[in-house]
Amino acid sequence: MAELPFKNTYDLSPEQLLALDAAEEMMERLDLGAAETAFLTMLEEAPDCIPVLNNLGHLYGKLLSEFEKAVEYYEKVLQQEPDNAWARDQRRRYLRYCSYD
């Protein structure tokens, strides 16, 4: 495989990188149902994959306005990476819109 233009921080396999790229492109094209399916399929194979969890948080929060789901995915990121500033900030943003009993 050619050298990546970024550091593969999470040691994703080439297949995971391709799937992640394809799902992100779907999200950019606003093919949200297909993107959601792709991310959830990836999550079944690797339930702790932080890039997928972050993307699902973004998909549910920003694009689908399903704020509780967004918070859940960002919580999963923070369980693994408590210092993840992106996930912490996004979780805080979407918590404002949630109504927990």
Give a short synopsis of this structure:
The chain has helices spanning 14-28, 32-45, 50-63, 67-80, 85-95. The chain is built from five helices and no strands.
Provide a descriptive summary of the structure in words:
With 101 residues, this protein is an all-alpha fold. The protein has a single domain (14-95), classed as Tetratricopeptide repeat domain (Serine Threonine Protein Phosphatase 5, Tetratricopeptide repeat, Alpha Horseshoe). Helix content is 67%, strand content 0%. The protein has five helices and no strands. It has helices at residues 14-28, 32-45, 50-63, 67-80, 85-95. Helix 2 (32-45) runs antiparallel to helix 3 (50-63) and helix 3 packs antiparallel against helix 4 (67-80). The chain is globular and about 40 Å long. The termini are far apart. The relative contact order is 0.11. The mean pLDDT is 92.
Architecture, according to CATH?
A: Alpha Horseshoe
Low-confidence stretches: none
Number of domains: 1
Helical residue percent? 55-70%
- What would CATH call the class? Mainly Alpha
Characterize the main sheet: none
- The CATH topology: Serine Threonine Protein Phosphatase 5, Tetratricopeptide repeat
* Strand fraction: under 5%
Structural class: mainly alpha
The radius of gyration over CA amounts to 14 Å
- Overall mean pLDDT stands at 92
Order of helices and strands: HHHHH
